[in-house]
Amino acid sequence: MAPEKPGGQLAAHQGLSVNEVMAKGGAEKPAERLVLAPKPVDLTEEDQPLAGIVAPSPVVRSEAGVSLEESDAEPLTPQMASIRALAEALADGVAPLAAQEAQVETVTPVAVVVPAEPVTAVIEAVPEVTAVEDNIVAEPVKASLVSTSLRPKLRPAAFKAVAPAATEAAVLAALTSEAGSIPVGTRLVQLGAFDSAEVAGREWERLVTKFGEYMDGKERVIQRAESGGRVFYRLRAMGFADLSDSRRFLCGACGRARRLYSCGEQMSRFGASILDADGHQLTREERAFFRDVNPFGFILFARNIGTEAQVARLCDQMRDAVGREAPITIDQEGGRVQRLRAPLWREWLPPLEQAELAGENAARSFYLRFRLIAHELKRCGIDSNCAPMLDIAFPETHPFLKNRCYGTDIAAIAEIGAASSRGMLDGGVLPVAKHIPGHGRAVADSHFELPSVDIGREELIATDGAPFAAVKDCPMGMTAHILYPQIDERPATLSASVMELIRRDLGFDGLIMTDDISMKALNGDLGDLSRAALLAGCDVILHCNGTLEERRTVAEAAGEMSDAAQERAERALALRQKPDDIDISAIEAELEALLNGRVYDS
Predict the structure, then answer these.
(1) What does the pLDDT look like over 151-182, one tens digit per residue?
(2) Domain ranges (residues) in the chain
(3) Which of 359, 357, 336 minimizes the C-alpha distance to 409?
(4) What's the CA gap between 233 and 100, in Å, rounded?
(5) pLDDT category, 94, cuts 50, 70, 90?
(6) d(Cα 601, Cα 304) in Å, to the nearest integer?
(7) Residue 424: partners with Cβ closer than 8 Å, 6 or more residues away
(8) Rounded to whole angstroms, how far apart are CA atoms 430 and 238?
(9) pTM of model > 0.70
(10) Which pLDDT score is estimated for 112?
């Protein structure tokens, strides 16, 4: 609120005088003259459209060579007089322009058509456009004046504007999808932005050629966009079932593209490790670590499990970290060993109990069981399972393992194992046969100590190893931390002799991962154990339940896969497929009938 008598004088702030108040403490006096804009410049005849110019009257010249029109004109300025003299000197001896035939210039517009080679579309040529109306005739020009104005020519009013927009629109329609034709809520993955629709189309064809397994079933979308006055074309893909599906595509196709060597098509090798995480989501440190070491895959445990959506997000984070569709596995045997549990997931009977209930229908019942398990896993983003477990149940088998077995008969176990593997593969999940070459005779828990099984090579091949020979086409297998003193003084995981038996005598040529390298059955430094396992013939080191530094030690010791391991890994990943359609209620009804009403554990 201002005082009644503030003192001083009010400054007459006008225009930029306010700057003087800030600089000197007082206002300048009012400006004596304020110029709003310069006087407009009058247009000459040359600046007007051709249609608005009135043809001048014929010029009649006297015998003296001076036109009658000019005789009444005002005196020329010195500048105009010099121009006139130059013009007359140039025109001396030249026939008047009026005597020449008027030339009407025909302008044919050039319409640039972008070839749409990747798309089969027919584009009609634009008819030639005559630039000037037929009834336009050039008017005579005074011979005494300069024939060409120094000013740039304006487009005559009678000219037709050349509009190649129809051709561009035809090209764009052939290559692109209109934004309005795509339903609201459609999930799109952007693959890049390009200067033209044609270039975007060629890039799509290149991606389809290189990454066909990822692009299958996807539709191309090319959309025109404008930003900052620049027009460009977005290349996008659509055809995704849900958000997780689109993220997996982005990590798979685009992530693989990012990992190609600049000198060729060879993909960067996988790290020879499978690693775990601490919780429900990756920490910043875990993301950076996984990005650096590029593990072949990941494994989940109960500490990683919350809800279906949470598990799916965690799987996305893991795949985002390595920039590809890395396999993610879990122990979901059913029974005592299963990480996904009620109330969100099914609680299964112990495998040995189910096999006994189903009797001669055991193989079919396990196919149905693992088809349902695969369905649950895929909904969470998990695409591998550490099953089937093909260890034989002996009278002396340790309790931690016994009811996880499928029985005591080698042929029945082999049949159940093969059926279980088919159930998972049909559901898009890669099976892992374990614990090769057999853990059933162990009387100790290898999580805490090293079991010793005193049998020879031939007996091991004929008994414990036989179920694994029956499923030798299984994409992956897991070793047993068992000591066979008659074969080697080293545990099977670290024994070149046992690994040779697995490959040569059992014929198993899938990717072989170790059981958890940090289990107490193995003594020593994690890095040394990892190197020893790879040297013995394992392809991948599985490490669980360790600190970030322990994981780092294992990953650095494991390094990248060997040539043979990389080949087996790629062969295993190629077996991942889109799950076939199933009727859940029908499968459950059939399984219930086979098990006399007992499908799930109470």
Answers:
(1) 555 555 444 444 444 444 444 454 455 445 67
(2) 166-240, 271-594
(3) 359
(4) 52
(5) low
(6) 23
(7) 370, 371, 373, 374, 385, 387, 430, 431
(8) 27
(9) no
(10) 40
Task: Give strand pairing partners of 431.
Answer: 385
| 206 vs 489, residue with greater confidence | 489
Confidence of residue 601 (pLDDT cuts 50, 70, 90): confident
- Residues 280, 306: contact at Cβ < 8 Å? yes
CATH number of 271-594: 3.20.20.300
Paired tokens of 71: 């005789």
What is the SS3 string spanning 137-188? CCCCCCCCCCCCCCCCCCCCCCCCCCCCHHHHHHHHHHHCCCHHHCCCCCCE
**Which DSSP category does 483 fall into?**
B
Distance CA 274, CA 514 (A): 9
Convert 238-251 into a string of H (helix), E (strand) and C (coil).
Answer: ECCCCHHHHHHHHH
**Cβ–Cβ < 8 Å for 348, 600:** yes
Sheet with 328-330: strands ordered across: 328-330, 295-300, 271-275, 541-542
Catalytic positions, please? 447, 515
- Return contacts of 578-586, CB within 8 angstroms, 24+ apart: 578/428, 579/374, 579/375, 579/378, 579/426, 579/427, 579/428, 580/426, 580/427, 582/371, 582/375, 582/427, 584/372, 584/375
Token pair recorded at residue 48: 């007007």
What amino acid is encoded at 138 in this protein? A
Question: Phi first, then psi: what are they for 164, rounded to 5°?
Answer: -80, 10
- Select from 546, 507, 508 the least CA-distant residue to 530: 546
